[in-house]
Batch of 3 targets.
Target 1
Amino acid sequence: MPQQETIVSAPELTLDITPEAAEILRASDLLSGRPRTMPVHATYFDTPAQDLAAAGFTLSLTKTGGETGDQRLQTVKATGSTADLFLLPEWRQTLTGDRPVLDDHTPVPALLGAKIADIGPLFELRVMRHVWTLPGQGAGIELALDQGEVTAADRRAMRCAIRLALRDGPPAALYALARRLDEIAPLRLAAQTEAEHGFRLLGPVLHMHKAAPVALRRDMVAADGFRLIGSACLRQFRLNEPLIGPGNPEAVHQARVALRRLRSAFAICKPMLQDEEAGRLNRESRWLAGMLGEARDLDVLRMRCRSEALRARLEPARMAAYAQAQAALESRRARLLMLDLGEYLAISPWTALPSAAEIRDLPLREFAAAALDRFRRKVKKDGIDLADLGDEARHELRKDAKKLRYAAEFFAPLFAEKRRRRRAARFLAALEALQDRMGALNDLVSAPELVERLGLAGDPKAAALLGTKRDKRAQIEAAAEAHDAFVDAKRFWR
């Protein structure tokens, strides 16, 4: 009979590292001891339609070689909304064969029913694993370095990652060690698990990652909602970060969207975030978004150019902007920001403060309704007589409309009744139309300064990028009409 156990994983932190950085780390004094080394071969199973993954679970069979011979471990792991941000429930059992044992000791039969007969292997992970046990101040941490590849059908991807598993001590020790490791060799907060690497190999090649719906539930409290929302934004940024380059303009756009959504989450949840760290993380996120901004602005300007000659004149500045963006992303400042954000969301030190405890414990749906009301009132009030506002006031209105739109997208799953879903769709459509009109107006307003800075003001072909007073009036009128339609849209949360 297989030996079975249901466990809750110890706190873990996974970090991406390049093979070159891994060799630097292995040669350091920190990892001076002799590691335990073993080949690892993991096979992931699911139905062809990936029904188990859709339910929020993975099923793997891992064969590990070592001094004691091969061992086979079956693991069913809860992921996504079915698990906590930091502790993943698992069902483990040792096996003797190469096929999973799918009995009632795991949730798989209840999840799949008759579809369980369709389960088969989908992809494989083959790595060499090196394991060190690192004693620390009040903490014992196991460091595992995996180097190898994930394969699915005829596609493959390199796998080089570090997993830090806490054996004893406070979870913050994981992040303290990660920062210490980064002083020796650059590493980054991982955005994907090894299972997600495999599933992505089965799908189309993605050149950018849009924001995914956040799996909020009505039984959550406000603090739970902020953690999930923030984690989703952080994940979207990290998924897009490695894709950023001048040949892929959508990746930098989506990375900036992720940072804007994250900063909006901090603004939406400000009443419950009473610590200084929240403000610092918000400012650092704004810095990073700003470092990517020039590349995005030049991408937009380039798309508006009808003249190939003018596009050619833009290209040196655009390449320089992407070089600046890449340098910022590769900086220790940006790497530490990702670790700091990960720690802030996963460990949530702000929840221990007595201030705002009552707000943090509010039912999430109640907190969401109040937040949506607050931001809607501001957008409604500040857009009155929009045609008479100055450029700066209209810019602030545009930013507030973005925050409201992100809040509505975040919280819409909490209001899933049929009538509310229809209202949410209409409300978001009206808000998106307002945001688009305000964005087009902002492009007209900011274009002269950008064209001047690029030294293109004297180029006759650049005149088309500037628009005319008539164009601006038309955009203002369209924005005012969109604001009126937004005001008329019914609230889906009341």
Target 2
Amino acid sequence: MVLQQEPTPFVSVSGEERIMTSMMQELPLDPAKLNRVGNPNRAEVRKVRTLFRWILGSDPHPTPKQMTVIRESILSGDPLADAVVAMYGRLPAGEGRKLLDQALEHGIDTVSDAPAELRSLFKQIDHEPIWLDRELLRLGCEVSYRVGISGELVLRNMSLMGGYLAGAAAKPLVFTGQLDRMANRRLVETGKFWMDVNTPGGLERDKEGFKSAVRVRLMHAQVRNMLVKSDSWDMRWGYPLNQWDSMGTILEFSVIFLTGLRALGYLFSRREREAVVHLWRYVGYLMGVDERILPTNEQDSMRALYHLIATIGDSDDDTRRLGEALANASLQGREGWLQENIGKLEYTLRAGYTRYILGDEAADKLGLPRTLTKYFWPAQAPLRMGAELVRKATPGSNRMLMWVGEKARKNAFPEQVKKLKADTTFTPVKKLFR
């Protein structure tokens, strides 16, 4: 049975009041009918619970009321962005996006007779939260620059791969073909977003990081609108690109990112870890994640990560399909004997890292080959840790590593965009829907 639901209608007070937060909207399905929420009391969660209890100093297990919030979040969209997409539908094709771009580039007050939906969205994103610390934003960006290509390894082969283990959460990618049909191209487009928001100063109101966060938010709302109107979407999987999965994505870029790097031997101070979490807290705010489920610090983020792990749903055929497609991206676009063999080595090393960091059971579900390269990564960790100790003791080393990381990005990224003809405007392509 397929259950369909139109996006939550726009709710306005005096024309411009903020739309009610997503968890207050009428749910499209009885939460008890969701088939994607794992039982947090199942046996395989017990070891993880013990580990997180030790990390946090308290029991992170979700209470019954927290489970209610989780289920409601899985059935909640982003009313502010969803309302803007509904507004797009009332205007000539392309006109809504033009209004959005004008407001992003020049401010909402420059839009003549701006629709109430657009004003409500910009009232939220133009508001600077009282908790925002721009020095922490800068430090979070510097950490991401400093780790160089290791950051890409972790994001791709731990964060993204791990996200595919929840079959229902990965459905939007499968339906839009974003990674199973055009893996390398979509990786470049995701890389554009990551680079924009991680550039020091990039989240200032007039910079690309801020604009990219908002454009990705609206792209998600457009995909969500298309999926809930399709005949193929089953609401028992949850709302597509819902609040809970969006919060999980923020964790993928923050504490999961840091965990994967630390497993490689990287060292971070407490302030550096908090800075990365703070950076992605603000990105999450701009992207419409409800502040009531958006972690405020590293401790909150680790507790939320446990909740994600404890309630993750079953893997399915789409898990394997996406895992294999992402792994095979290393083999694509290789010309000549040397490049082909470099691609095979990269494929094996990346698969080994996923096995090392996520475990053999998860890697099997993702369709990754069994390889001894999983032992390479822990073996090199002591050497990396030694290099990190030297870095910490050497004045100016952080600045040098940041310069190297920035130069590598600026040199490689435009060439990748050109080669793959990647769209970095964050516009969904309807024809990709299966």
Target 3
Amino acid sequence: MTKKIDNKTRVQVLFESGITKPKTISDRTKIPLSSVERYVSLLKKGESLENKSYSPRKHTITPQIIKKVIRKANKFNKPKSLRKIGGETKISHQSVKNILEKEGFTFQRTKKRVIINNQARKERISFAKRIKKVIIDWKHIFFSDEMSIWLSRTKPYGMWIQNKNDQPVKKQEYIGKHGEKLHVWGAISYRGAISLDLFEENLTAENYINILKKKRRLMNQLYPEGYYFQHDNSSIHKSQSVQKYIKRYFSNKVIDWPSYSPDLSPIENIWAWIKQKVSSHSPQTIPELKRLLRQYWKDLNSDFLAPYFDSMPERLKQVISNKGAKINY
């Protein structure tokens, strides 16, 4: 049975999808404004909203424990969450936070800058204007995508640094042989998500068609009256064999997606959310990684996903007003 999504998670979903104003979140979710303001304040500080249990026993914060906390936080190449450090030092995550702040640490999130060229901007604007006329009800669309996740990179997205004038050491980018890698294909809709497809080999046109064959039945069951299907325009999706299959089984219900537009697709927000959740556990094996991915994927019910689909008109509006540049999603 899918568990009910609590208020904290609902707020985090909207916050991570780019909606950061407490009043807007409160209006959409009907959660008291005072609670939303508190949750948003914590999220902006890089803190987790999860209610995780830990031993209520009080531990004396000795100088040795303080040194151990600082030593673990200072490992820039292996950033860890407050809860992870707390578990390793046998104290609460709040105690870890108090120690780090007292020692002059601040939390910084890693950021990426995306630059979209003029041609891609024109295509994005054209798409936004065209799709607004074609699709009225975003509740009848499957957004699909593949992602890859290295087992060695399932780490927190930010870190605590002692000197706020210093820049965090960037995580190394590995090329070639470096541990194990898992590929994931998923699709989400307003009514929920269909089961994940996990595989370790590189995706090919043949593999992609096999995935669609397996998942098309599930999509038809969820939307017997019909639906639109979205995937990006990667070379595999545009291959002749895939296009032939798509034309035969999806008719004219496939959305022609613009290049360089992950910010327009809600499933990209879902991948980011799932990676963040998985990273908080720092899995050590592929089976553990698979278990965590499936565990969090099962939480994607209609209540969880609705805000992402409701945001589509606003995303298109922002693309047009931003002249095709990246939007805040």
